[in-house]
Amino acid sequence: MNEILKKKIALLPDRPGSYQMKDRNGTIIYVGKAKSLVKRVKQYFTRPQFGKVAKMVTEITDFDTIETNSEKEALLLEINLIQKYYPKFNILLKDGMMYPYIAVKKGGMPSLKIAHKPNDRHYDYFGPYPNSGAAYKVINILNMVYPIMEADVHSGRPNLYWYLHQLMYPDAQKEGKMDPEFIRKKVYAFLNGDTSDVIYRYKEQMEKAAAALDFERAEEFKEKIQDIESTTSSQKIMMKDRIDRDVFAYSVREGYVAMIFLLYRKGILLGKNLYVDEISEDLGEEIQSAICQFYVNHPKPKELILADKEISQALSEALDITITVPVRGLKKDLLLMALDNAKAGLDQHFMTARLEDNVFDLLTVLQNKLNMDRPPLEIELFDNAHTQGQDAVGGMVTFVNGKPAKELYRRFNIHQPNKADDMASMKEVIFRRCARIVHDQLKPPDLIIVDGGITQVEAAREAISSSGIKGVKLAGLVKNDKHETNSLMDGDTGELIPLDRRSPLFFLLMRMQDEVHRYAITVHRGKRAKSLFTSFFDDIPGIGLKKKERLLDAYPTMESLLNATEGEIAQLTDSKSAMRVFEKIQSLKIQQEMMDRAAGYKKS
To answer: Helix/strand/coil (H, E, C) string of 414-449?
Structure first.
């Protein structure tokens, strides 16, 4: 930190405001806000920094500040300054993705075009649509039915189908016969979801063609009807109130955050916007800033649904929209769906990032970090999974030349008495695996990796040592106090080796870590489902041995049973028993969803 920075920091007030970091050229490279300018700005230069924040700090040579009367004013100022300067170190959600509308020109015979911003007062707007292809398909349908004007012609010339005499309205074949307001009413009805008139006219033409034995023409009309139905049915109403609303959720992992917006327009789930980036100084303030920036570039809905009350309070006045933090009901379900999508997006980021890297080079880097005499071409990773000690299993995955070799995966039922003891389970599974290699004289892996700190590594080391296996290197993936994987532990020396979370090796290890966790969870779910299935009917009144056998024959797996309807079950037993079975199925579905979440979050 240079002398100018030191002196300026010493003069900063303990007041809210915005700060603007500058590089040696005087360019603003970052804009932030703070409850206390002196505390926030000082943190950048007195605390250890990582990732993009560390890189940013090395480029800062000066800064400016603007004091405000409140944190709310500081937030609004931050957004305005980001929009003005577009600093390179801010999270800018400026993907440019604007969902298309169909614009209908006001006055005279209607003309249609695609628009991405509904801001021209000379047009009425319908939509938005999921993509331009869907919007163009709707325009093409309307052009073939009604005498709509060409959108790019100012003379009021009818569209091509008018000249080809292919319009559905015979009266439109002569110019001036059709009332523009009548056509406008029909077009607006279609765009608002009432397709009955268009379908009726196509069916009428289809029947005429069939009666004239023109079956090829009749088939064309049939395809058009199906096209209309598929286009409109894909716009399924998800919320009956038809209110424009967005659902926001975020997921954090390994120093990265995934933020997602699910966009509902007129009750329709239009699409999603997903962003993944490194976490900087303050996650809460970063999320506030990102949401505000999102609505600089995207239309505001009437309602925003999110899970964090503190963020909600900070944003409600700044955005001037209704912000809801649901605790139950349909909106809570939408929030959970958004969270699942955020987690999936973050997982996908780790599974697909840096796939273009040379894996053999990365294995050589891993070799050097662990002081191995050769690159670890065959790596085995272990993980355990259980639900409160029930149905405990161990999973092993194998990576050969940096790629998963699924034919070498192994699953283990845990035999040690305390199934909830992860250390004991890890020790058992690794001992059994290594002892089998010794007994069957199999080729040992070059490297075994466990997920955890010193206690997990020690448990694995004891298991390897007692099994008698030779020539196997051991390493652990160690997390920091934020539960982020940040270092490797050498199993021989106990040395912690830092991992750069932006490095190609980090992403390779994360892909391996994700795969063993996914496999262990999958094995656990299968065992849990099997144990539930064998005893499912035992405590249901009215289900005796014969009925149970009949139901087990009809539904040989838990999956088939969970998909059964009450009516189907009633065909195999009496209606009262069927109702009881179906009620238990619904209860079990809820229970399984909760257990899946618990198991899924165990390692996150």
So the answer is: CCCCCCCCHHHHHHHHHHHHHHHHHHCCCCCCCEEE
The model scores a pTM over 0.90: no
Displacement of CA 289 from its chain's centroid (Å): 20
d(CA 469, CA 211): 83
Q: Mention every residue, 6+ apart, whose C-beta is less than 8 A from residue 217.
A: 209
CB 319 within 8 A of CB 342: no
Closest to 344 measured CA to CA, from 274, 239, 433, 396: 274
Nearest C-alpha neighbor of 258 from the set 328, 352, 384:
352
C-alpha 468: how far from its chain's center? Answer: 45
265 has which bridge partners? Answer: 268
In total, the chain counts a number of residues equal to: 604
Rg of the Cα atoms in the chain:
31
Kindly state the DSSP code that residue 591 receives in the 8-state scheme: H
| 455-492 residue pLDDT tens | 889 999 999 999 999 989 999 999 887 778 889 999 98
Report the distance separating Cα 472 and Cα 445, nearest Å. Answer: 6
Contact 375/383 with Cβ under 8 angstroms?
no
Q: Is 164 helix (H, G, I), strand (E, B) or coil?
A: coil
Q: State how far the Cα of 553 lies from the Cα of 143, in Å rounded to an integer.
A: 56
Are residues 446 and 378 in contact, defined by beta-carbon separation less than 8 angstroms? yes
Q: Which whole-number Å values give the CA distances from 47 to 39, 41, 50, 54, in the listed order?
A: 11, 11, 10, 10
**Cα-based torsion angle of the residue sequence 54, 56, 59, 63 in order, rounded to the nearest 10 degrees:** -120
- Give the least confident one: 202-216, 274-288, 374-388, 393-407: 274-288
| 3-state SS, residue 395 | strand
Q: pLDDT for 274-304, tens place per residue?
A: 888 887 767 888 888 888 888 877 788 899 9
